[in-house]
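Risk mitigation, structural track. In case the binding assays with zinc ion fail to produce interpretable data, a predicted complex structure has been prepared as a fallback.
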Amino acid sequence: MTLPSDILDKNRKTLVELLLKEIPPELNLASIEFEGPEIVLYVNNRQAIVKFLDTIKAIAKKIRKRVVVRASPDARLPPEEAKKKILELVPKDANVDPNSIVFDETLGEVWIKAEKPGAIVGKGNIIRHFVLAETGWRPVPQRASPLESKMLNTIMSNLLKQSKYRLEFLRRVGERIHRDVIFKNNYVRVTALGGFMEVGRSAILVETKESRVLLDLGINVGAIHDPLKAYPEIDLDAIRVDELDAVIVTHSHLDHVGVVPLLYKYGYRGPTYMTKPTRELSAIMIQDLIQVARREGRDIPFGEKDLSTMILHTIPVEYDEVTDVAPDIKLTMYNAGHILGSAIVHLHIGMGLHNIVYTGDFKYSSTRLLDKAVSEFPRVETLIIESTYGATKQQSRQAAEQQLVDIVKRTIERRGVVLIPVFAVGRGQEIMVVLNEAIEKKLIPPVNIYIEGLINEVTAIHTEYPEYMSKSLRDAIYRGENPFTSEHFKIIEGDVGRPDIVEDRPSIIMATSGMLTGGPAVDYLRLIASDERSSLIFVGYQAEGTLGRKIKDGMREITNVVEGKVEVLKINLEVHSIDGFSGHSDQTELVRYVLNIKPKPRNIILNHGEPNAIYTFARLISRAVRDPSSGYQTVPNIFTPSILDSVNLTASR
Amino acid sequence: MTLPSDILDKNRKTLVELLLKEIPPELNLASIEFEGPEIVLYVNNRQAIVKFLDTIKAIAKKIRKRVVVRASPDARLPPEEAKKKILELVPKDANVDPNSIVFDETLGEVWIKAEKPGAIVGKGNIIRHFVLAETGWRPVPQRASPLESKMLNTIMSNLLKQSKYRLEFLRRVGERIHRDVIFKNNYVRVTALGGFMEVGRSAILVETKESRVLLDLGINVGAIHDPLKAYPEIDLDAIRVDELDAVIVTHSHLDHVGVVPLLYKYGYRGPTYMTKPTRELSAIMIQDLIQVARREGRDIPFGEKDLSTMILHTIPVEYDEVTDVAPDIKLTMYNAGHILGSAIVHLHIGMGLHNIVYTGDFKYSSTRLLDKAVSEFPRVETLIIESTYGATKQQSRQAAEQQLVDIVKRTIERRGVVLIPVFAVGRGQEIMVVLNEAIEKKLIPPVNIYIEGLINEVTAIHTEYPEYMSKSLRDAIYRGENPFTSEHFKIIEGDVGRPDIVEDRPSIIMATSGMLTGGPAVDYLRLIASDERSSLIFVGYQAEGTLGRKIKDGMREITNVVEGKVEVLKINLEVHSIDGFSGHSDQTELVRYVLNIKPKPRNIILNHGEPNAIYTFARLISRAVRDPSSGYQTVPNIFTPSILDSVNLTASR
Ligand SMILES: [Zn+2]
Ligand SMILES: [Zn+2]
Ligand SMILES: [Zn+2]
Ligand SMILES: [Zn+2]
Ligand SMILES: [Zn+2]
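Fallback model:
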């Protein structure tokens, strides 16, 4: 058999020798490759794979690595034959679409779209492995969504086109991850590059003696005209793109992922780790950012090409799965409860030297869509926690839902239109579920719910990844009760007659943008603003300066310029603002998280908040952790860094 | 005329164009070169130089640069002719040694050794310039010291041998300093690399968007067996030797300069800035460090070659003189009052964006040897202050002197020997001045004062640089009353009969090492330990674990192995320890410095102290600056960083 193409350094040599000793000769090993965080065994005897699955699992556990088995290229059936075999092997109720079976010759993978992708995998991956044994192709199941995501299709077909490069890329990353190091790390430090004492442009650099990893790399969209405030401090010398080991993205909001394409434009060719939903949603968000900027004639320092490069170098990870991202850093992502695919990042550093939990944005209570954020970890020495609502309390989710249903009910009763401006990614899907359930439970009459804007594309992504949603929602979807495909939803695409839609009374309209800064929502508002029977309901944050904020604060006249003419609009509809739908933990939840997290950290670093939120939160937890019943044996260090401060986590203080 | 050899970038082009416009044609300019921080005008008409001195001074002021005029090589007299001319021109009472006139053809300098080097310079540099005009050689006066420094001679002859390389080096540095930058700096941050929450291995990295500068780079000699604690964190990625603009050394103690040679071993070829006395004393200290390590069979990761490389790349600066060290950083050194040549560093960054004062080690009261540290600066936003005695008060200098004189007097009266262990660089010269004055003033009888060890070499350096000592001492030396050449001092060199010396009773012996860890002091102690009439006087800090500390703490028996035999020594002599001779500010002086500094900083960073000293000092000043009468309009931020923490000085907090 052949060893990896290049000369092995010591670390990989040891691993390979260990593997050679353990792998049953019957498999007839062709080669061993390090591809990204995975070690891939290419075997000639594909039929033997299933027999030795447990053996290989045991080996993987022993060497604490992700081990994957593939048939060597010579041991694969020709695609047409393989396709026939697959259609035989896969259970009928998976509902495979025969026209969407696609072969990736470089990676030896076959992508199979099915209505029930889980059936392709089978319990304990058993069917997946049967397909591999019988055809030599490794099946990658995909969900045939009832709502088609254009973005996902584009991403997948691009990845397929570039699969040769991608294999090279993965092998390069694999080498880097498993490079030799001396494991006598003596420090771990984090540097605030953005999103400290502020919200927007989140970015944290984690450095050890061996490695450098970025946690998030966001843009402050609100400050986009001021490069000094819009982008994180990535021209700091500590970030040299050629020596960066990994970018880790918690979720798809632009304040966390928006600047990653710029890094690739600067020449970064290393991996970016995120969940699959985050990859898809990020692509949607960033593409929209670029397109809006172009439409408005604003400069943005990267384009769609850089976004594609980012996607090409993205390595998806799943919740609760341990992944090597550097010789001395293991990454695990946990559910953050914030938006679809959002993650709390856990870094295990230097064979136990230090463990970091970075919450990203998180919600420490369950919602319709998502389970509550995880708060238990194998180890934690440092907690980096978001503080958006460090100074704000919100009403409960139940109260918020009740308030929404009440307003909608009253508006329907008087035959008005309910307009709910929504963000593309965030609360939109949540509100959809609430409204649908309210109709099902007959709390409100069955009216049409019109949905227009980017939110539809995002809903499609949700239906592709039920496994990232709350257990109850996921189970409902598996049972075939997908709330997003409810008959009550009317998806508006292309140039429709909005004036006709507002004539369908009573009805509900959900449209972007969430703060009335543009998009169809503004158009709908113009059409119903003067109607006293209708209602405008804000369910999200309205930033200073936006039309949404002005109306929320009491402005009752809008001046618009439409086709050259000045139009003054009286606002006679009811205006409501409902708090409690936020995807962020409120003050009470934040403090509770610090008290509940297991085990207890000895450093707590506050980020993602305005100074008032940060300092209020710091004061609260500083008091809380001193309570003998708090569970904190020793008082942790609390840090409130500013941008470009670094904190040495391993210093004794 | 020729422009600098390489293609000029914009910044230097602008400077050159400005100069070309302003320089009188009569000078007949041959070329303009950027040599280190200086701009050198090479002129063909050397006779015209004196006439235009004021013009050139005005130009220098206008462009805010150091401008130096030299005759072009073609316009210089042949060395023999020049020598004759020099002996004619220089006032007779300078007492020039004709055999020590040395020509450096590459730099166009002539080194002239004289008893009164000031006479070669003349008031307002006038004689210096006459020599230049008449011979074409730029005179560099040197003091013919009554005590010869071997180290200084070695340094000077090495520099001469390598003067061609040095010219290339200076031009390379000149290019780098005047490189093009966009002056829109938006941050200044400092990183603690060593000497924070501890004493030893002082090192601070200052970073701007354009530049990187190191302040000090010391070794923790006490931890020399543990590389993780002995050396600063210079393998941090932020320090890339090829992108470092400058190393700035405050003074010659090993905890501030000891690791600079290692940087050159790592490949650094940029400049190190320090005062001339610091250069000479550092060479002595580092050479001793290397030799002792070799003698004791200990590993030290650099050698004499690296020390020479450091000296070769050292650019001397004088107190109160502004020097460009990076495109956006100007350095000024001020008297620190700690040891000869010690400096407080002032950095003026980014055309006024930020100003840093770093005290290094400093004494905020005057001593026999040195004036009190400077506390007034053009601007200060950040003060980085040493905290060695943040938790300790010391008696006054007068009280300490009185105590010393009393003990010596009593010992002499009973015909004993006074043994004073001293550090090579530090209090030795101070004690010498005190004892000499006491004899002159007849406070004690005129006994012999034997001096042995490295202290003698250091005393020689002191007499070379009277301009770095206190005004009163300097004036005395100019008047010919050099206390260091007093007849009472008997300098012991080579293998002398120490038993004979202790027979000269009564007498005083000053010898290294200061903590009785080795050196002649230990030998002398053995000889007089059992003698009840004699006295042992500690005048400096005795570190944990040293023989000095044990005796100070009450141990009255020493077990020695001499030539294979175990020898038990009873200590019967009187043991005294006098505080108040320290070169560090004590607690009261530290607090007073924070209150007196002008203008008032808005950030105060504490370093160079054990945690207890740091926290005590932080508490004291945090209270002091809140007093309305403190002069602080707003309460400054007080930082107590650990190693590898960074502080963004320009963040709004
Ligand atoms: Zn978010
Ligand atoms: Zn966020
Ligand atoms: Zn010192
Ligand atoms: Zn020191
Ligand atoms: Zn000191």
